[in-house]
Design a protein that fits this description.
The protein contains 10 helices and 5 strands, in the order αααααββααβαβαβα. It is an alpha+beta fold and about 230 residues long. Strand 3, helix 8 and strand 4 form a beta-alpha-beta unit. The N terminus is likely disordered.
C-alpha cells in the first residue's frame, strides 16, 4: 500500500495507546491486500471483510492488549465480525432466565457478543479455582446452548484481586478460566470453540482497597460471539 494512502494516525502510531496501535497495525496489514482496489468496484463481501478486519483488529487489541489478541481480533473481523442473530437473542434470554438471583450480569457488547460477568460469590472461593455449586446450573445452561450453536466462539477470561503475588494471581486467574472451560466441555461443549485467558489482577473493576472491591475483582467473564459469515448462510 503506498505510504500516501495511509491515515496520518497510522503513520504516527505514537499518538495511540498500545492496544489501539496494535489494532491499527493488524488492520493495516489485512487491508493491505486490498491496495489498489477501487472501493466502488469491490463486492459487498469484500467490503464487509475489509471493514470487519479493521473493527475486529481494534476489538481484539482492546480485549487482549497484546499483538496476539490484535491478530485474533483481526482474523475474526476478516470473517465478517460478529452478528446479533435471532439465535443469539434467544441465548441471551435463556441465560437471563438461568441467572436470575445469582448476581451474574448478562449483556450484549457493542461488537455483538454475549457477555456473562460472573462474580466471586457464586464462582470461586478466595485463592481457589474449584467451581462453586451455585455456578454449575448457569454453566449447564450455557453448555446446552453451545451444542446448538456450533459456529460460535467462546472466550473465558479469569481475574483476581491484588491479594498475593503477581505470579500467583496470573496462574490463579488462568486456572479459573480453564476450570470453567473444562466444566463446559465435560457437558458437551466443543473444546475447539473455547479459548481461555488469565488477566491476574491487571484489569480491576473496583478498588482493591476494600473487601467489597476485591470481591468484585475476583471474577470470570465469558464471551460468546457468532460469526457474521456463518449467520448469513
Amino acid at each position: 500500500m503506498p505510504r500516501s494512502t495511509l491515515s496520518p494516525l497510522l503513520l504516527h502510531p505514537s499518538l495511540h495507546p498500545v492496544p489501539v496501535r496494535l489494532g491499527a497495525l493488524a488492520a493495516a496489514l489485512l487491508l493491505a491486500g486490498c491496495a489498489g482496489m477501487d472501493p466502488n468496484a469491490m463486492t459487498p463481501t469484500q467490503r464487509r471483510s475489509a471493514i470487519g478486519a479493521g473493527v475486529g483488529a481494534v476489538a481484539g487489541a482492546a480485549l487482549g492488549g497484546d499483538a496476539r489478541s490484535a491478530a485474533i481480533g483481526a482474523g475474526v473481523g476478516a470473517l465478517g465480525g460478529y452478528v446479533w442473530s435471532r439465535q443469539m437473542e434467544q441465548t441471551r434470554q435463556t441465560m437471563e432466565r438461568a441467572t436470575v438471583g445469582t448476581g451474574v450480569a448478562v449483556t450484549q457488547t457493542p461488537d455483538n457478543q454475549l457477555r456473562l460477568d460472573i462474580p466471586s460469590d457464586i464462582s470461586f472461593d478466595t485463592g481457589r479455582a474449584d467451581i462453586k455449586p451455585n455456578l454449575r446450573p448457569v454453566l449447564d445452561s450455557f453448555a446446552r446452548g453451545l451444542q446448538g450453536q456450533p459456529h460460535t466462539e467462546v472466550r473465558i477470561i479469569g481475574h483476581t484481586d491484588n491479594t498475593g503475588s503477581d505470579e500467583f494471581n496470573e496462574r490463579l486467574s488462568l486456572q479459573r478460566a480453564q476450570a470453567t472451560r473444562d466444566y463446559l466441555t465435560a457437558r458437551g461443549a466443543d473444546p475447539r470453540q473455547v479459548m481461555v485467558a488469565g488477566r491476574g489482577e491487571r484489569e480491576p473493576v473496583a478498588d482493591n482497597a476494600s473487601e467489597a472491591g476485591r470481591a468484585r475483582n475476583r471474577r470470570v467473564e465469558i464471551f460468546l460471539g457468532e460469526r457474521a459469515t456463518t449467520a448469513a448462510r
